[in-house]
Amino acid sequence: MKTCPQCHANLADDAVFCTNCGTPLNAAPQAEQQIQPYQQQPGQQTPPVPPAAPAVSPYDHTAEFSEEEVHDNKIFALAIYALSFIGIIIALLAKSSDNSAYLRFHIKQELSILITQVLVGFATAVLCWTCIAPIAGCGLLAFLGVVEIICFINVCRNKSIEPLLVRKLKFLK
Fold this sequence. Notes:
- It contains 6 helices and 2 strands.
- The chain has a two-stranded antiparallel ribbon with strand order 1-2.
- It starts with a strand and ends in a 5-residue tail after the last helix.
- The chain has helices spanning 28-35, 67-83, 85-94, 101-126, 132-156, 164-168, and strands at 2-3, 10-11.
- It is mostly helical.
- The longest helix has 26 residues, at 101-126.
- A hairpin with a 6-residue loop joins β1 and β2 (10-11).
- α2 runs parallel beside α4 (101-126), α2 packs antiparallel against α5 (132-156) and α4 runs antiparallel to α5.
């Protein structure tokens, strides 16, 4: 008979796990060795811990644009999200000679939101005879409006982050 090193229950000789607490019996000595804390010897310095690298989101494109480009085009980027389709036209006409990657990024984001709004509106109109489609459509349109507000706030904070729903959609990439 074996005894469990964790709960001291009596077990069969061929038992691999404790039937009482589930502790693996063949790996118990290794687990005890790994659990022992590091003990510093007298006079020994602790090794320095390297700083953790900051987590970078693949959806954050802020570092791709220079500060000058962001500063020069911030008003147009704000207009894109505040005025929707009209804001896109204003941004395209006002900066047609300037090939700004910053404005192109925000135009693509707003176009993705607009196309999604049109598709949701069309599906809601086609399925208006059902009870759930108009409710779900209005909910999605409200969510897309909140996404536009979040994009507007991100532009105010000089951030260029793909919005939650837009990053999942693969058109206009």
